[in-house]
Amino acid sequence: MAKMLKKEAMQYRQALLKLKDRITDDVKHISEDALKKSPKEASGDISGYSLHMADLATDAYDREFSLGLASNDRNALLQIDDALKRIEEGVFGVCEKCRKPIAKVRLKALPFARLCLKCQRFQEKP
Ligand SMILES: [Zn+2]
Fold this sequence. Notes:
Blueprint: H1 6-36, H2 49-89, H3 104-109, H4 117-124
Helix pairs in contact: 1-2
């Protein structure tokens, strides 16, 4: 099996770092937004309480949704770090399951992919 050229690996490294930056930024914004939405101001004033309940429910949903999104991002960050490690170890771009090279098209779309498309599809089947 042909090993990935160092120059090529560095390009993926660059893409991964860029992606990491973007996600880190996203997570920061999402967390800030989620914190801002904290309904602490509702605790003091009881007037118009019932009116508030609907708002609170929506807020809570929004917050959970945002945090869930953030956790997805965190998961992606872990995968990116993993991919960066694989680049350093010189095993980047190799499917973890069948040990065949992962298609370049796939790597370009998803630089932190650990499995080739075939193995990924196989894994996703119940
Ligand atoms: Zn595979």
